[in-house]
Write a structure and sequence with these properties.
Layout lengths: L2 H10 L4 E5 L5 H10 L3 E5 L3 H8 L10 H9 L3 E3 L10 E4 L14 H10 L8 E4 L7 H12 L9 E4 L18 E5 L2 H11 L6 E3 L3 H31 L4 H8 L23 H11 L5 H27 L8 E5 L14 H11 L3 E5 L23 H5 L3 E4 L8 H7 L3 E3 L10 E3 L1
Parallel strand pairs: 1-2, 1-4, 2-3, 4-5, 5-6, 7-8, 9-10, 9-11, 11-12, 12-13
Antiparallel strand pairs: 6-7
Helix pairs in contact: 8-10, 8-11, 11-12
């Protein structure tokens, strides 16, 4: 029996140890799920604060409660920042960010740094799964050569797969176990081992022919949303100029029982996937001499939306004899979508930055984000403002950037001097401006 046969046996009898690299919004739910079904899980993260919190049974993600963390700890889950412990695991699942660099090109440094930190401690008979969204070819062209340089040959004495994360934070209907899992292997043997591992934790597996097909699948999913959101955002701008309520139009169009899927406009794109992933494909496509004009145009429209919102804020203030400079503006909702605490790539933050650059005094209110989080590109020394009649009335303008269900919209419309609504949540009123 060779190394991969041994790995297959340990996966089948659930004695395999699963290593999750990156304990964020993707990695931590997956770690908890593997622990829940009885596998020993070792979570790796370079953030010592996260490691300490998890090992103390605490949580830093709102929807993953303390009870869930403490249950996982009793089931054997442990977090560490020591990559030397890679030798203890049978499967390495990489769930790290894949941002864009300053030139809006793919930044694989988190993936590369993770595998390079783990490689000195790897051994034959391990499975590597990349879940981070990336350009087609990353698994074969970036990870496989590094493994081979260590003497680890995918399909021979180790396994290599790509299985894109599909987490949807805040979705009450689909959790980690419920979302079908796409997976592609470097070789058929790699695919079989990866599929066997994930089948313990995920109800439905969707195998594809290779890692590139799996990588492209995730990009198609996100580009589909980006393009359709770009379309409806452009329609919103046109409708606004024509004095038409775009939300009324969308609701009416959605009554057609076939051929139309409703997408909602907003202040821009947020989350780690949709604002970023299309550019991974456009970058890789250039290698093949292809210009992805349609995808890039949608990206341009969506990227422009925070500036359009700021223009609507300026117009609303101007109508009341005020300038942006010197105005007190409250942004409602820091998260990128409602009812969650995830602020990654949130357009609300960009709107705050643009307004501050124009001389406005900025505050925010978000019950899910009590303190402005650490971010690579932006920083505001702010805490969430509690909404009361007096606090709302004290601002020259309130901007509804994220429509959390917990906001008191009646109180808001009763006491705001003017509200700029980017989500179509508020009823028509003299002190409300659609954006």
């Amino acid at each position: 029996m060779d190394n991969l046969d041994t790995l297959g046996v340990s996966i089948a009898n659930k004695s395999a140890v699963v290593g999750i690299y990156g304990l964020g919004y993707v990695g931590l739910p997956l770690a908890l799920r593997f622990a829940e079904v009885g596998l020993k899980v070792l979570g790796f993260d370079i953030d010592a604060r996260k490691v300490d919190m998890l090992n103390a049974g605490q949580s830093y993600i709102e929807r993953l409660t303390v009870d869930l963390i403490q249950t996982a700890r009793r089931q054997g889950f442990e977090a560490t920042a020591d990559f030397a412990r890679t030798r203890e695991v049978d499967a390495l699942i990489i769930c790290v960010p894949t941002p864009l660099d300053a030139h809006r090109e793919p930044d694989l440094s988190f993936i590369v740094n993770t595998i390079d930190a783990a490689l000195p401690h790897m051994r034959a008979g391990q499975l590597v799964s990349l879940e981070s969204t990336t350009w087609p070819g990353t698994t074969d062209e970036v990870l496989a050569p590094r493994l081979r340089a260590r003497g680890l040959v995918p399909g021979d004495n180790c396994a290599l797969v790509f299985s894109p994360e599909r987490e949807d934070p805040g979705n009450p209907h689909y959790g980690t176990k419920d979302i079908p899992k796409v997976i592609g292997g470097h070789t058929p043997r790699c695919l079989a081992l990866g599929k066997a591992l994930y089948e313990h934790a995920i109800h439905t597996m969707v195998p594809v022919s290779n890692t590139r097909a799996a990588e492209m699948t995730k990009l198609l999913e996100n580009i589909h949303r980006s393009v359709n959101i770009g379309l409806v955002n452009e329609m919103k701008i046109v409708a606004d100029k024509m004095g038409i309520n775009i939300h009324e139009v969308i609701d009416a169009a959605a009554t057609k029982p076939f051929g139309f899927v409703p997408y909602k406009p907003g202040p821009g794109l947020g989350g780690h996937c949709i604002p970023i992933d299309p550019f991974y494909l456009t970058w890789k496509a250039r290698e093949y001499g292809i210009n992805t004009r349609f995808i890039e145009l949608a990206g341009e429209i969506n990227h422009y939306m925070p500036q359009w919102v700021v223009g609507k804020i300026a117009d609303a203030l101007n109508e009341r004899g005020k300038a942006v400079k010197g105005s007190r503006i409250l942004v409602l909702g820091l998260a990128y979508k409602k009812n969650i605490d995830d602020t990654r790539e949130s357009p609300a933050v960009e709107i705050m930055d643009l307004l501050q650059a124009k001389g406005a005094h900025i505050d925010y209110s978000d019950p899910h984000v009590p303190v402005f989080p650490r971010k690579r590109d932006y920083y505001f020394d702010l805490q969430s403002v509690t909404l009361t009649a007096d606090s709302i009335a004290s601002y020259d303008c309130v901007v509804l950037a994220t429509d959390h269900d917990s906001f008191d919209y009646v109180l808001l419309q009763q006491h705001a001097q003017v509200t700029v609504d980017t989500r179509g949540r508020l009823s028509v009123a003299d002190n409300t401006v659609a954006a």
